[in-house]
Each structure stands twice: as C-alpha cells, then as structure tokens.
C-alpha cells in the first residue's frame, strides 16, 4: 500500500503543481471517480503480477495491452519513468532553492541518497516506504487541515460545481503507468490475495481523501499559485518558519520515494542486459538524467504530465475493462 502511495505522491503531487494542472474548481466528482478508477486498476495490475510472480513489468504489460502493442507501451513506460524521475531530481533542486541552497546541491543530494538506498537492491525501497509514508501522509493532512480550519473553509463548499469531472480520466491514466512498472517488479514479493485488496482499496481511499482536501486548499489561493514554482509554499506563506521547514522536509521525502520507485522500474527492466551490481546501474542511469534537470520543475510538469495523461488513456481503458477482455479471450 505504501509502495503505491509513495509512487504516486511525488514532486508533482506533493507540491500541488500536478493537482492544479488537472483539478482545481469543480473537481469533487472527478476526485471520487479517480479513487474508483485507481483502486480498480491497481487491483487488476497486482492480480496479474501476483499470478505471474513477476520481477519486472513486461509480462504484466503484455497481458494488459496485448502482444502487439506491448513493445510500444514498453518504450512509453521506460520514457515515462525516465522523464518523471528527471522531474523528481529537478524537484529536489527546486526544494533546496526555497532555502537559498544551490539548485545543484539539491540535485546532487538526492542522487547520492538514491544510490545508497539501492545498495540493498529493491529491499531498501520497500523498507524505507514503510517508515517514510505514514509520516508523510499524517504531516500533509495536518498542514492542509490546519489551513482549512485557520481560514474557516468548508470542505464541501464547491461540491455543486462538477464541470471538471472528465479530468478523472487523464489524471488516473497519468498515475497508472508507473503502477504497472513498479507493481510488476514485486509480483514475487506478494504473499496472498488479501494483500492485493488491502493495498488497492487502502491506497485509493488515502489518496482520494488527501487529494480532495489538498485541492480544496489550492482553490482558496488560486490567484497566488502562478507566483510560486511550488504551490504548497503559497499555502504556507503566512505560517511560521518551523512549519515551512517541516513541510519542505516532507516534500523532499515525497520526491525521494517517487524517484526511487522510478529508478526501481528502470533498473529492474535493464538489469538483465548488464552484468554489473544493481547500485552501479542506478548510478549510471542517474548520471544520464542530471543534464536534463536544467529544463525546470514547473515546465516539466506543465508539458509532460498532461501529455502522458492523454497517451495513457488506452491503458486505463484496458484495465477498467480487463475482466471483460479476459473473459472474451478465454
């Protein structure tokens, strides 16, 4: 469950930038639909991964999109993981800049920490998610609920505005492609079907509640968001320094867990081609990403995320209709 949440809550999500790109005003129903679509998609992916006891995503991908299209989506997943991990590295640099720390120090620090994490292969990622994610979720909920109370906001004041409900489709599609990559790599780690149900439903509900509260807070500061690279800092602008520091640390951990998930998906896909240690392959992949971080955090999210959301709609359709496709093929 924490692996799923950690993959989803990255620099784009935790900073508020990704949510504002897709949601904003009139999105209550869109968020509810996202919970349903996301939970069901994770359930399907994990069921296939568990049945195949997979250690990388290709066998799972073939079953979802079919033999003919799997090479195309294999390339798309690889490109997605690569570019979104670049976004995470860039996000680490942007987070450091909020405290007048050099952008490159922020990028360099996350690269070193990722290499250290994977000295233990993928076991390190599974362990660290269990430690970091509960703190991250509770911390974000605390800050967002405090903002709601301090500004006397009604969480359901915009419930009648539902014109943006179609946003649920590209937003879910954007977040489901990395799920195939990450959950496809841990099929041999699952021990029962109960795990699949708890992880799918639990992660969907937690993300839904967090997304709804976060989006409601962003609506209140809509006029100020364009002034900030990271919208979260607009919410925190009138709070004491210790709260800003606390949330910045949590934001960095969100960036770190998603970058780690992306690197895991890339490395498990490539390791069969190279007879070198896992951590060294991680280092080589990260080295190729560093020059691309110069594009800028908000630019990367504004261009790449909506594009991936649209391109992945076919995968989402296949997942939502998977029981029907599967029955027909059998």
UniProtKB/TrEMBL annotation:
UniProt source species: Ornithinibacillus bavariensis
Keywords: Membrane, Transmembrane, Transmembrane helix
Transmembrane segments: 26-50, 71-89, 101-119, 131-147, 167-186, 198-219, 239-266, 278-301, 307-325
The name this protein goes by in its record: Membrane protein YkvI
Keyword NADP: no
Annotated InterPro entries: YkvI-like (IPR038728)
Phylogenetic lineage: Bacteria, Bacillati, Bacillota, Bacilli, Bacillales
Superkingdom in the source lineage: Bacteria
